[in-house]
């Protein structure tokens, strides 16, 4: 059985067809799913029972509640109910079922177990070239479900041999990707594109550009005066930018730590 690894390699690999699948997960459920998928080794046969350390699992999800058992039950129920998948394989065969179909929690144990459907393991265990690669730290750092959805979708189309990647998507398909209905952002029978873009596309791109190694831009393509699709282009940031950004973030954290330490000292002195 697999345990959560503390190795520096935090890339997650799973089939592109699953990465592009429309789901109705909450952000918390998405993060939990990625923590589970992190235990899958894409280059070898895996046990379908995944073993997860309780404290590590909740710490990574930043769940501070003392009522962790009920939080666990809610998360697992959501994953079981929402991982129903229908796939057509290369031979035309239809596969239906839930990817996650069980979990076991023992009160006095330091871990809990999640059971995966062995029928879907081949989609997760394919060779790396057929997989989406995303970084777990990025996933856990996102504050918006739309950000995670867009980031995962773009990663599923990334060709690492290209300097710049490009993808087109219609408004209808983009709303569906975000889990929105046709009525969302429609006010008085009129679609507010500006509001839609601000709260989904622009906010997601800003978060991705700030947190990840990916830099994204988008533009609207027109045909006969109407928007035909959105065009996304993305590149990987260069090493100089990353080194400078890392140093900047480290300085910010150090400054914050210094302030917190001083506040603690001041509080002790005042008592």
Short description:
The protein is an alpha+beta fold and 271 residues long. It has helices at 16-19, 27-37, 54-60, 68-82, 121-124, 136-141, 145-156, 171-177, 193-211, 239-270, and strands at 11-15, 49-53, 84-88, 94-98, 100-105, 111-116, 131-135, 164-169, 186-187, 190-191, 214-223, 226-236.
Total beta strand runs:
12
Q: Structural class from helices and strands?
A: alpha+beta
- The pLDDT mean sits at 80
Instruction: Please describe the biggest sheet, giving its number of strands, its sense, and whether it closes into a barrel.
Output: 3 strands, antiparallel
How many helix segments?
10
User: How would you spell out the order of helices and strands?
Assistant: EHHEHHEEEEHEHHEHEEHEEH
The share of residues in extended strands comes to: 25-35%
Placed side by side, the strands forming the largest sheet appear as 2-6-5
State the end-to-end CA separation: 51 Å
Radius of gyration: 21 Å
Query: How much helicity do the residues have?
Result: 40-55%
Poorly predicted segments: 1-8, 259-271
């Amino acid at each position: 059985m697999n345990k959560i690894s503390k190795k520096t390699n935090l890339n997650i690999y799973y089939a592109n067809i699953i990465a592009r699948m429309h789901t109705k997960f909450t952000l918390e459920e998405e993060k939990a799913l990625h923590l589970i998928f992190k235990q899958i080794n894409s280059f070898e046969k895996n046990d379908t029972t995944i073993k997860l350390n309780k404290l590590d699992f909740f710490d990574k999800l930043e769940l501070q509640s003392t009522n962790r058992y009920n939080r666990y039950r809610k998360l697992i129920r959501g994953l079981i109910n929402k991982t129903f998948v229908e796939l057509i394989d290369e031979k035309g065969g239809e596969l239906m079922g839930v990817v996650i179909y069980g979990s076991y929690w023992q009160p006095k144990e330091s871990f809990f177990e999640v059971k995966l459907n062995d029928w879907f393991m081949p989609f997760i265990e394919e060779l790396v070239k057929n997989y989406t690669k995303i970084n777990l730290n990025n996933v856990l750092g996102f504050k918006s479900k739309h950000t995670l959805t867009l980031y995962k979708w773009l990663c599923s189309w990334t060709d690492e041999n290209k300097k710049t990647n490009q993808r087109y998507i219609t408004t209808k398909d983009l709303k569906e990707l975000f889990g929105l209905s046709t009525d969302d952002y429609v006010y008085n029978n009129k679609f507010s594109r500006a509001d839609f873009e601000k709260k989904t596309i622009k906010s997601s791109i800003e978060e991705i550009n700030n947190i990840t190694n990916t830099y994204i831009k988008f533009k609207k393509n027109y045909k006969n005066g109407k928007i035909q699709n959105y065009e996304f282009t993305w590149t990987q940031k260069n090493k100089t930018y990353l080194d400078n950004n890392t140093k900047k973030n480290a300085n910010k954290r150090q400054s914050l730590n210094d302030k917190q330490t001083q506040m603690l000292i001041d509080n002790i002195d005042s008592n």
